[in-house]
Amino acid sequence: MADHSSVAVRGIRLSYGVQGEPGGPPLVLLHALGESAADWDTVAPVLARHRRVYALDLRGHGRSSWPGTYSLEEMRDDVLAFLDVLGLDRVDLVGHSMGGVVAYLLAQQQPQRVRRMVLEDAPPPLPRAPSTPTRPDGPLDFDWEMVLALRRQIDAPDPAWLPGLARITAETLVVAGGPESHVPQQGLADLARRIPSARLVTIPAGHLVHTAEPRAFTEAVLAFLSADGVD
Description:
Distance between the termini: 20 Å
Strand order of the largest sheet: 1-2-4-3-5-6-7-8
Order of helices and strands: EEEHEHEHEHHEHEHH
Number of strands: 8
Structural class: alpha/beta
Oligomer: single chain
Helix content: 25-40%
């Protein structure tokens, strides 16, 4: 069972859950757009048998602050500030979809902070046809203005992000969801080619790999993270 807490970073509060043995190798989980730390509840306890797992609510989501200003760069900087506050010098990162974008932006800006990285069905930084999302009915546990702001960035990413992938030094596992995913799978293969120490694995579960196939996902992630003998 995760313990829940929050920290002040960059003028906002970030909520997070933490579980696993104190002093274990730190692993930070970054959720998808419109999700929260709770999205990892099925797989986090398995990952926490081997590591100290931190699952964040990114800004505009869940119990974290909804400050009204949103960008993927701000989320990246929030996570870096979170690591600083908790004294986590070098970590492993797992990011799903939008959380994967935050992860690779962090890893290209401060490569020394990331030991290994897992990008789960994360869109590459390539332009795509824009679309206007429809707001779900009823109350939301995320800020709808955040969704609109980040969708614009994902549709038209900063051109510097693509060559920036070459600066990533973390060994990287790109987890593709296969043909049932809405994320173009060729783009994930290209993402793996552009990151110097990356490889691609496909778990044919659609976009929500860790939800649809939690056992296959955790087995792949733990094998990758522990390949050098870290338990």
